[in-house]
Write a sequence for this structure.
């Protein structure tokens, strides 16, 4: 009698990756490296160039406040303005830039403050840096 040999399909026991899986993994790794490198460059620039965010917010606050003013008088050491029928003065007090009509501290650690008006524009110069506020 002849023996029948059953050829049962065995699942493949090959270990490893196909070429497509390897290429896909390589693509994912390269994209991650590019994104990571871009983030590191941005972080390096942020650390290298310190930004005085308090001063930037103060300038935005001044611009908003001056935009609401109905009258504005500019002197070299102060600005006097009327907002909603109230009179306010922005000036240096020691090492601070303050808004009086109350006492609101706008910026600290200020050495010199100078205001000037050129045509329609109003500028404030703080420690040698000049900002347009109106």
């Amino acid at each position: 009698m002849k023996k029948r040999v059953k050829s049962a399909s065995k699942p493949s026991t090959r270990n490893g990756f196909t070429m497509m899986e390897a290429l896909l993994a390589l693509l994912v790794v390269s994209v991650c490296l590019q994104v990571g490198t871009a983030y590191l460059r941005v972080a390096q620039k942020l650390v290298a160039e310190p930004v005085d965010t308090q001063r930037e917010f103060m300038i935005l606050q001044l611009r908003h406040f001056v935009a609401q003013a109905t009258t504005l008088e500019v002197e070299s050491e102060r600005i006097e303005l009327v907002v909603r029928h109230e009179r306010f003065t922005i000036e240096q007090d020691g090492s601070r830039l303050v808004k009086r009509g109350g006492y609101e501290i706008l910026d600290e650690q200020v050495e010199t403050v100078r205001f000037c008006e050129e045509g329609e524009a109003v500028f404030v110069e703080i420690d040698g840096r000049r900002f347009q506020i109106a």
Observations:
- The chain has two domains: 18-50, 53-132.
- The helical segments are 19-48, 53-67.
- The CA atoms of residues 92 and 98 lie 6 Å apart.
